[in-house]
Amino acid sequence: MLKGVTVSPGVAVGPVRFAGYELDLPTGGRIPSEHIEAEVERFLRAVESSKEQLRELGNKLEEDLGKDELRILGVHVAYLEDPIFLGDVENKIREDQWPVEGALRRVVQDFDRIFELVETEMLKEKAHDLRDVALRVVRNVEESASLAEPIVTSEPHILLVRKLGLSDLFGMDHEQVLGIVAEEGGANSHAAILARSMQIPTLTGIPDLRGRLRTGDLVILDARTGVLHLKPPERLQREFAVRMGESRGVTVFEDAGPVELADGKPIELYGSCGNLGEVEQCRDAGLDGVGLYRTELLYLAHSSLPGEELLQHHYAEVLQRAGEGRVIFRLLDIAPDYRLAGLPNRNEPNPALGLRGLRWLFHYPSLFREQLRALLRQEAGGTVEIALPMVTTIQDIQRVRAAVREERAALLKQGQEIVDEIRIGVMIEVPAVAFHLAGVAVEADFLLVALDGLQQYLLCADRDNLEVADYSRIYHPSLFRLLSQVAKDARLLGKEILLYGETASDPLRLPFYIGAGFDKICLSAVRSSQVRQILSKWRAVDAEALTRRVVKASTSLGLQKILLEAEH
After folding, report:
1. What percentage of the chain exceeds 90 in pLDDT?
2. What is the pTM of this model?
3. Separation CA 139–CA 348 (nearest Å)
4. Whole-number Å distance between alpha carbons of 452 and 51
């Protein structure tokens, strides 16, 4: 069992195939001086072929992925037109007499060394993007195809790649690729965003795949728990093959009507979305709306910051695709180690506890105000709901309300048509807020518990750090007691409360959430069918009894045992 970081959840069982290792292979010696011009021509032809491929992919996949995800392809086209990148490769061909493959390899290695010295994940992702572009060019160089192991195969397989990149993602036969495992590549890279949109089970962060596996080896990819099983026994293969069938089956979304417990008590299920395609999935699955729409994609998918007009248009498209369903937009919540185009690099000593969520937005007021204006400029006379990330004090909410009032007045003065109301929700992820809900609830129209963030901060364990994964996933009694208390406090304060996060749809924990009083849950549309089935088997009184037992548990093992016994 090899542990990795989940990029896109799901299960896959099958033989492995390798791709994306061309830049690690030997490229031969230097070329004679009389061949230099011909080699430069080979390079330029490969660049043009690569740009044409990306444009064709954009046209082909526009309906499947939507305009915002496709802008990621535009970032790669920009690299192929970057005079610095083109000049560096050409100089290594002309001055060092390297063949195209060798020149590309040297340029990528130089960038890798530079970006490995920085701590910002965004810059490292740019290095991954550059490697991805170089891979595409190498594959388009004449006579270089023999270096690459074929990606397309008629047999279903799990793709193993050096770095998670667009070239491998788009160079494959989507019908035959069951899943993807990468040695490197962030969970928020361009390729990762698209892998999630395409619902391909994907893991990253598993080193030395070449050394551990051979083409054709059978593996089990469990991207729900972040584990790759090597040489699994037949019993385990059969078990996961069933799970894989169930997982792939729920991608056909059907509206099964209102969600109810076994005793008829209604439960509201909302989507957790980050792009337009996921919004449509929520609508098709019959969910009550979008409980949380992550607004970061436009910023990650662009080589420059999106302006107010683009934001306004995108948010309008989200509302349109959601139909009559509710939509809650989370304000921009940039990861602490990201650097956006045009903004200065920041080296914080402890970024996870530094400028995150609202703190980051307050630090960049022009971006904050721009997003508010785009949200205010939605359908005149309507209502827009927003969620505030990383709220710590009541003053945070008051600052947002003041900014909304000021931007509303400015837009009206300009003669703009705007919404009647912006309803403001508070995300509960800072433990201090969870322990004293009354301290912020008075200024909130509704509350939204960010499960993963709250658990991470409560247990002091980064959920993306494999070295502390056991701590971040532990069934700690304090977390369950706190959640039960938060739900109770919200009822006493008369505030609507929603539950959001990857573990919100965990089959083992779900009955506890219901028993604690969380009857509005945000989840990925692909998990809605399974959640419906689980909820239909529980009565409210039984779930409440389970919750009372859980909050009395004194140890993590004891608590988990209670949940496991209830599952059966």
Report:
1. 37
2. 0.66
3. 39
4. 39
